[in-house]
Amino acid sequence: MAEDSHVLEAGHAPTPFTAAEIRDATTVGKSITRRVESVGAEPFLLISTYVECDESGATLERSQRSLDGAPLGEPQVMKTTWLDLQRHASFTADGTTIEPERIETAIGALDCLRYTVRDGGTDEIFWFATSLPGMPIQQLTRTDGQIVASVSVVDYTAS
Fold it and tell me: Which domain holds residue 30?
């Protein structure tokens, strides 16, 4: 039987995208703006821009801005591999359910894979748009039935 490049380790659910799919969908200039909300904190925008890309990985610049666009601190620059980006979506199989779902977002209606990852009283729910390999388009953290954090893409520029 052929190895599934969506499964990174034994006992883990398949990831929505392979490292190669993420690499092939990512070019210099790709920029994703997400609105981040957490209980007890002011919402802010988190902007991730790919400033360098090669066969093995990418360099991302991440910056935070207030909702009115004012910078919140200095941008952070990080280098990562495509495999590390894939690994962010590798969860244990026994705690994860994966279901297709079409959702309305700030960037339009998208067909997604909804990953619900349960750990005790906390559910992490991620929506990965099947047409946009990479980070989730939306995510929620629910603890004891209450939403305590959410992240939603509000702008997506493929470059």
Answer: 19-157
* CA–CA gap between residue 101 and residue 48 (Å, rounded): 25
pLDDT > 70 fraction of the chain, expressed in percent and rounded: 98
Domain count of the fold of the chain: 1
Distance CA 21, CA 9 (A): 18
In this prediction, residue 1 carries a pLDDT of 40
3-state secondary structure 38-74: ECCCCCEEEEEEEEEECCCEEEEEEEEECCCCCECCC
Asked if residue 5 is part of any domain, the answer here is: no
Q: 102 forms bridges with which residues in the sheet?
A: 111
Grade residue 119 by pLDDT with cuts at 50, 70 and 90: very high
